[in-house]
Amino acid sequence: MDEKEPLKVKVVFDTNVLISAWFWDGNESRLIEFVEEGKIEGYTSPQLLNELKKALEYPRFRLQQNDVETIHDYYALVLKVVEPKHSVDTIVEDPEDNRVLECAVETEADHVVSGNHHLLALKEFRGIRIVRAKEVLERLAQ
Fold first, then answer.
1. Contact, 75 vs 44, CB < 8 A?
2. Is the pLDDT of residue 132 over 50?
3. Beta bridge partners of 67
4. What percent of the chain is helix, strand and coil (3-state, nearest 5)?
5. CATH architecture of residue range(s) 9-137
6. How far is CA 32 from each of CA 26, 36, 91, 96, rounded to the nearest angstrom?
7. How many separate helices (H) and strands (E) can be counted in the chain?
8. Cβ-count burial of 35 within 10 angstroms (0-12 exposed, 13-18 middle, 19+ buried)?
9. CB count, 10 Å around CB of 89?
10. At 13, is the secondary structure helix, strand, or coil?
11. CB within 8 A of 13, min separation 6: which ones?
12. What 3-state DSSP class applies to 12?
């Protein structure tokens, strides 16, 4: 009998997680390594990639435009890019956070990984758990 390969965990990454993964070695960067290794299916959307680009252009990162493009292109390559078909208006305080939820719904993700307090306060959205990177790593270790 053939043993079926276990289903991969589907994850949508919030912009703050992608930035942390790029600049610092930690739980977030480990999750991106798992995506590179094919242990996790990582997703994003054009809207989230645009948000990433805007965030990377903040003066505090001191990046040249070609560096911003390199980081953007890396994540566009490593993550599966999907176009959400439905809009979400759950988070009123920061409507841009809804783009993460839209991507998660579109991909039927298991988790949204975020450090954003608006998203984390939801804990779950339509059966999708909203967690920090550490929690996904702990689940994968089980």
1. yes
2. yes
3. none
4. 55, 15, 30
5. 3-Layer(aba) Sandwich (3.40)
6. 10, 6, 26, 23
7. 7, 6
8. buried
9. 9
10. strand
11. 21, 31, 32, 42, 43, 44, 48, 79, 112, 113, 114
12. strand
What residues does each domain of the chain span? 9-137
Short-list 16, 60, 30, 61, CA closest to 136: 30
Taking the whole predicted model, whether its pTM rises above 0.85 is answered as: yes
Alpha-carbon distance of 27 to 46, in angstroms, equals: 24
**pLDDT for 4 beyond 70:** no
Tracing tokens 């089980």 back to the chain, one arrives at 142
Residue pointed to by tokens 């009998």: 1
Cβ 11 vs Cβ 42: under 8 Å: yes
Tokens of 113: 């990984």
Nearest to 29, CA basis, from 78, 67, 70: 78
Q: Which residues are within 8 A (CB) of 125 and not within 5 positions of it... i.e. 6 or more apart?
A: 90, 101, 104, 105, 112
Structure confidence at residue 142 (pLDDT) = 80
The span from the CA of 25 to the CA of 3, in Å, is: 35
Separation of first and last alpha carbons in the chain = 25
Query: At residue 118, what is the residue type?
Result: H
In whole angstroms, what is the distance from residue 38 CA to residue 8 CA? 8
